[in-house]
Every structure is written in C-alpha cells, then in structure tokens.
Amino acid sequence: MATSGSKCRACKAPAVIDLPRHNANFCADHFLQLCRRQVDKAIDDYDMFDRSDRLLVAVSGGKDSLAIWDLLVEAGYQADGFYVGLGIGDYSDESRAYVERFAASRSLHLVTVDLRDDYGYDVPTAARAAKRKPCSACGLSKRHLFDRAAREGGYDVVVTGHNLDDEAAVLLGNVLRWDIEYLARQLPVLPAANGFPKKAKPLVRLTERETAAWCLLRGIDYLVEECPMSSGNRHLHHKNTLNAIEQASPSSKSAFYLNFIDKMAPLLASQSAAASGDVHDCEQCGSPTTTELCAFCRLVDTASAHEPVPVELVLGRRGRR
Predict the structure, then answer these.
(1) What CA–CA distance (Å, rounded) separates 106 from 287?
(2) pTM exceeds 0.70 for this model
(3) What is the span of the domain harbouring residue 103?
(4) End-to-end Cα, the chain, rounded Å
C-alpha cells in the first residue's frame, strides 16, 4: 500500500496504493478506475469478447479469479462462474466455500464439477497413479473441463484469471526451455478452433498485487493460502526471479511480457500442433485431441482405477525428496 502522506496522482487525495511501475500513487477511487481501464484495454486490444458474448469464468476462490468475475459483472458482461473441485483436502473445501459465498452475495450463476464425485478421482490420486506432478494433473483436468463446460453450456468464451505475474513467469520458463509449442500458444486470447472454445485472459495488464488491492477495496473475501501441492513448483521460482528484477527496474515485467506478445508471438503463430489443425475427436469422449485418446481420458482411466490417495501422503512424500 502507499506510504504515509503520499497523494493520488489524479486528484491529490490521500493515496491508498503506490504503483512503482506506473511511477504513481492512487486513491481508492482512481485505483479502481485504473484497474477497469487496464482490463478494458486488454479486452479491446486483443479482441477478447463483446457484450453479446456469454462468458464462462474459471473461478478458484483466489483473488484473481474472483476479481475478474467481479470486474466483468460490474462492467455489464454476461459472466457465469465455473468451479472444479480438485479433492485437495481442506484446501479444496475452503476454496469452494469462498467461491460459493462470492456468487451468493452477488446472485451470480455458478456451475460446479467435482473430480472425485463426477470422474472417480482427485488430484492427489491422479498424481500418484499417473506418475505426474500434481500441478500437471490439476492443469490437465481443469483445461479439459473448462473446454467441455463451455461447449456443453453454449458459452462463447472461457475466461481465466491469469494476471501479468502469472503470464510473465510462464513466459520466462518457456523461454528458458525454448519450448516453441508453448510459446506459440501463450497469448492473451486464443480463438475458437478445431472444437476448442475461445479463451481469454483479461487480467494480463494487472499484477497480482493489484488484483489483491482490487479485492480489498471491493470487499471481496478470497482464499489467501497457496495450494499446498504447488510447493516447489518452478513457476513460483520464476515469479520470485521476476519480482527481484522488477524491484530493481520497475515495469520490466510488463515490458518483458507485452513486448513478447507484440513482437515475437506473431512470428510463432503457426508453430503449434493445434494451430495447424492436426486434431480429431477423442475416441472416448469426443473432445478435440491430437492423439486417438485425449490426455484427460487417459488420466481418468488410470486415476479412477487407483485406490484414493490422501493429500497428506502425497505432500509427505514430496517433502522427503
């Protein structure tokens, strides 16, 4: 937040937050205006969606997903929420409670799916059964279910709460590995193609500190704790690296990410298998895939046949490595 005595750049009222990357301080009203403008700019610049589109917002109970759902509803968009119960012990129970309270307090429509109840597995079990990292099993499951819910519910766009910090950290990781397939698809918006719904990330011009401030000023209660299974994730190390660079040179993070989108991403647009149209229907569920059986169905087949694994067992094993 802002230092004592600092003034809002726009109106000279007492500031509530300092934003070094903008070289400015803002009062509550003008900070909220800044957030709205940044989201509007992302939506307009990347042609994410318009008022006639039905939006399905992936919500987790954290600050980013609840902030973007709030921003979109406040702006008059048709936005419903979609929550996936991942079966990660108390963490999942708490995250669902935050989402449900937020939706109920604003009379919003929330669609829910539970991995254990609906597909016979959870993330800890999938990680053990498929010998995947928990974040890999989680991400695969959520992406498939977001796409499926959008197709079956008649939604035009899947909206996620990825912020500038998230996207810059993922970009750094992909650059360190020169992972062309992932770099080619790391865009603020992916058009609908080959059976996949359109996907959009309207928070790419806001940092996680800014979305947290939005929630605080808007009275949004959110889950603060990180997922217990994300400990040791390289994504967090990349975030810390970029934060250190940002502290020494404010606005470096946004320059890194936004310049990639403007200057490099167009050169990589044809490099992904999905972009080339090399997809067909999964033999088991009918979802688009580049293989005979999609990765989600393979995961379901493996994990649902495995004895349930308590989250504490997975966490304990990871801690001993």
Answers:
(1) 33
(2) yes
(3) 45-320
(4) 38
